[in-house]
Amino acid sequence: MPSEQQPAKRKRLRSEDRRALILQSAKRVFASSTYAEASTGELARESEVTEPMLYKHFGSKKGLFLAVLGEFSAQFLVLLQERISRRAEQNILDALERFIDDYNAALKVDPEIQRILFQAVLEAHDPDIARCVNRHNQKIFGLIRQLIEQAHDQGYLDPTLSLDAATGGYMSIILSLQYRLMLDLPREVTHIQEEMSRIWLRGLKRYEP
What are the boundaries of the signal sequence (predicted)? Predict the structure, then answer.
């Protein structure tokens, strides 16, 4: 007589694999609701773990949110850096002219992280969350400033230029781009923002009489 088939046992994940799964699931939950609305119960269910397991890995909902923010904003920055570096190796001015284009392209890979970053701004009254957002923005600022400094040193830009102010102009475009995404403004607005970066670069270039 054939023996009854036993239900397949769920494969036990390694701790680092379980953590990665929780982060991925939590990103979806936070992106589809808000930090305040997302409950630890929902976060645990989506990750297929218990709430105690969630606390074991991250300590609290805020700890999980900070981990999601840190993990996926870092991935976004790697994608952005790769695109910028490839373009800058060929033409530094093209890298500056197309920075917002490349930023948009990196966003399309994982649009959820921008929604989470926007939520983080809303929660910036918490000093830990504010520091995480500031680190992310400082890294983007650093990427842009490095490009501007290279173009400046190579004689393409106005020699009297304030490098920080020039970088700030690009950052303001990026912040307006994030605002557009959160308000779901028409796609035409993005084209305007991309053109703004080209207009800004023309203003930075060295004057040739």
Answer: none
